[in-house]
Structures are given as C-alpha cells and as structure tokens.
Amino acid sequence: MQIDILSLFPEMFNGPLTTSMIGKAQEKGIVNIDVTDFRDYTTNKQHHVDDTPYGGGAGMLLQAQPIFDALDAVQEKHPTPGKVILLDPAGKKFDQNVAIELSNEEHLTFICGHYEGYDERIRTRVTDEISLGDYILTGGELATMVIIDATVRLLPNVLGNQESASGDSFSDGLLEYPQYTRPAEFRGLKVPEVLMSGNHQKIAEWRKRESLRRTFLRRPDLLKNYSLTGQEKQWINEFKLDQEQSKK
C-alpha cells in the first residue's frame, strides 16, 4: 500500500509512523508512507498557504493552490491515486468498518488541514471526508495518524498473528471478551477455569458470551445494529436479570 500525507508539519509523523507495527510494516515493504509539506508548493513569495476568507469572518483558510499543486505532484508519481481523504469535522465518522474499507485500497492520500478551514474548492479533489469524532483538533495530523494505524494493522502480515485483527473489538460488531495470561492466580484473582479446560468449544462459547456481556454493559448502542441469534437473545435476558438483581 502507498500512503501519501499532505501536511504543514511533516516532522509530527516521524515517531508514530516509523516505530512499532507501522515502522516494521514499512521495513517489510508492506506499506510505504511519504509525507509532503505542501508549503513547498506555494507560489506566494512569503510562503503563506492561508488567507482571509471572502466575505469576512474569523480565522484563516487554507488556499487551494498549494494543495492542488501538491496533489498534482503526488499523482504524477502515483498515477492511480486511490482515495484522497480530507480530515474534516463534517466528514463521515471513522470506525472499524471504515478502517477495513481503507485497508483494501492500494493508495491513500491524506490532506491535513490547519487554521480555520479550507477553501471550498479543495473538496473538488477529494474522494472522502473523514472525522474522528465530534470534537475539534488543532490540525488533521493526529487524526491521520490514528486512521493510518487502524488501517495498516489490518494489512496481511503486519501483525504477528493475523487472527489478532479478526478478534479485535468491533470486528464482529461487539467488544472483545476478557483475556488472561499466566499466572493462573494473582493476588487472589483467578483465571476462569473454562479457559484452562482445553475444551475449545466451551472456550469459544464462553468468549462469545462474555463479549456480548461486555458490550451489553458498556456499549449497548452497538447492539442496535447487531443481529442476535436465539442463544444470544437468551444470554441478553440473563444479563438483564443479573443487572436487575444487582440493583436490589
């Protein structure tokens, strides 16, 4: 996968994208990440990339020219641009499904905004607009790092065990089940016996039930779009009963 990032602060990406799993993925040649300082493409003598908005108003807007020319340069090197993503509060909210969708692309280009906003004409070069959530960041750099991390880890051979990604929270619409490692008992806290039983069918059933329980208790909103089986409906009823009894 080829990833290009257009940013005024390319140095921000040095640590997060060159260490840990993302760094190893680049070393293996699974992904290549290039960061372009679009200030290098301004034709302004003072190297300004922003200006006041027509009609007045607070703040400064990123100009179209530097970003257009930076995109032209990126697409000259990579004629198949894939998705061009604008980080913007008005965009589609990022989640695991979006990460999966992006992981199937061969080329992603991220435009990291700054200042008050964008010249609207920049959106004509964009295929997707994405937001991390209903809050405002100083710029698009941190959001881009999060999206890249969530996306690249889904690529084949990035994780040591590819099953790790398929078992993550949200991968099947539920939160992940509780997990334990050695020792079997620590300060009086014991690992559930079923996990040490060697009975894989019972372990799988326990994990599914606990995954559903954790989702029911912590993120019940996720269950609105989750299709429950008959067994899962029965478990939900048991969770509700436990919840009612605990309040007494």
From TrEMBL:
<protein>
    <recommendedName>
        <fullName>tRNA (guanine-N(1)-)-methyltransferase</fullName>
        <ecNumber>2.1.1.228</ecNumber>
    </recommendedName>
</protein>
<dbReference type="InterPro" id="IPR002649">
    <property type="entry name" value="tRNA_m1G_MeTrfase_TrmD"/>
</dbReference>
<dbReference type="GO" id="GO:0002939">
    <property type="term" value="P:tRNA N1-guanine methylation"/>
</dbReference>
<dbReference type="Pfam" id="PF01746">
    <property type="entry name" value="tRNA_m1G_MT"/>
</dbReference>
<keyword id="KW-0963">Cytoplasm</keyword>
<dbReference type="InterPro" id="IPR016009">
    <property type="entry name" value="tRNA_MeTrfase_TRMD/TRM10"/>
</dbReference>
<feature type="binding site">
    <location>
        <position position="113"/>
    </location>
    <ligand>
        <name>S-adenosyl-L-methionine</name>
    </ligand>
</feature>
<comment type="subunit">
    <text>Homodimer.</text>
</comment>
<dbReference type="InterPro" id="IPR029026">
    <property type="entry name" value="tRNA_m1G_MTases_N"/>
</dbReference>
<keyword id="KW-0819">tRNA processing</keyword>
<feature type="domain" description="tRNA methyltransferase TRMD/TRM10-type">
    <location>
        <begin position="1"/>
        <end position="224"/>
    </location>
</feature>
<comment type="similarity">
    <text>Belongs to the RNA methyltransferase TrmD family.</text>
</comment>
<keyword id="KW-0489">Methyltransferase</keyword>
<keyword id="KW-0949">S-adenosyl-L-methionine</keyword>
<feature type="binding site">
    <location>
        <begin position="132"/>
        <end position="137"/>
    </location>
    <ligand>
        <name>S-adenosyl-L-methionine</name>
    </ligand>
</feature>
<dbReference type="GO" id="GO:0005829">
    <property type="term" value="C:cytosol"/>
</dbReference>
<dbReference type="InterPro" id="IPR029028">
    <property type="entry name" value="Alpha/beta_knot_MTases"/>
</dbReference>
<dbReference type="InterPro" id="IPR023148">
    <property type="entry name" value="tRNA_m1G_MeTrfase_C_sf"/>
</dbReference>
<keyword id="KW-0808">Transferase</keyword>
<dbReference type="GO" id="GO:0052906">
    <property type="term" value="F:tRNA (guanine(37)-N1)-methyltransferase activity"/>
</dbReference>
<comment type="function">
    <text>Specifically methylates guanosine-37 in various tRNAs.</text>
</comment>
